[in-house]
Amino acid sequence: MTRKWPDRxxxxxxxAGPAGLSAARHLRAAxxxxxxxxxxxxxxxxxxCAELAxxxxxxxxGFDHPPEWVRRRLRGLRNMPVxxxxxxxxxxxxxxxxxxxxxxxxxxxxxLGAYDGRERPATFRYQGEAPQTRAQxxxxxxGAASRVARxxxxxxxxxxxxxxxxxxxxVVDCDLADADDIRFExxxxxxxxxxxxxxxxxxxxxIGLGLPMHRGHAARPILERLMAQTDSFSGxxxxxxxxxxxxxxxxxEVPYTDGLLVAxxxxxxxxxxxxxxxxxxxxxxxxxxxAYLRTAGRGTTAADLAPYxxxxxxxxxxxxxxxxxxxxxxxxxxxx
Length: 336
Fold this sequence. Notes:
15 strands; 2 domains; alpha/beta; single chain; FAD/NAD(P)-binding domain; D-Amino Acid Oxidase, Chain A, domain 2; 9 helices
């Protein structure tokens, strides 16, 4: 192993999606030392979801972005960006590296020690070796059913009946009914989830669906049937397939413990009604950084980190509202 591994850092961030990248950006801008690790061979790949973000996403995310990070802005939705997530996440990681963040791909956290009143020790699997570091704070941004949070004693188990499988195609050279607006359709076969057409160019779209995980095996034939039936687009060819899943449940009520904060999908920060999680990831990562900075070196016990929950309160209200709307739609569709 040729990489110089830091013995100690202020913050260890596990996971380089929107939450982890946003947290690392805001922490480093404030002068914190940061180690960012991601288990994928290449940050940003493979991409997932419809790639649609809110209009203020980049302001929350914390990065000035080059044009190639955005596939299209939708005029019908106040210029909401459709991201190129591979370019966005790999590009953000490269910027962080230039800022002085230690960024490591293809690196898995395999051990997380107890908080000793000041730090947590962490052990990794990287290039056949087991490097270690110690961090005042660990941010678990490693996705749904977070292993990192579980190692710290937070129950991240998810009821399989409250998970959603997603399948989408990036279709190019197609004719769109409206290249500046999205289409959501709610066929009973997907109850309570939906089929989407999100334009990502004048003649290009992200077309996909979500459905209960236990029916994920049926996603491809259902998607192709709905694509044939919709009037939102015609023609084109499939250039890319995107798959994923997300929790369709309430967020973790206490997303912190001694020396650790949970952010993004790892904390179930997903709008259960819409399946939206990109903005929530970036927002929670930013607030995780703020919660750490507010400790001002006093310590990172659970009591020190408790303000994180208050910083997230506006998002929690939205997530609870989305969850109950989804449940209401599910009941209405089930009863005709």
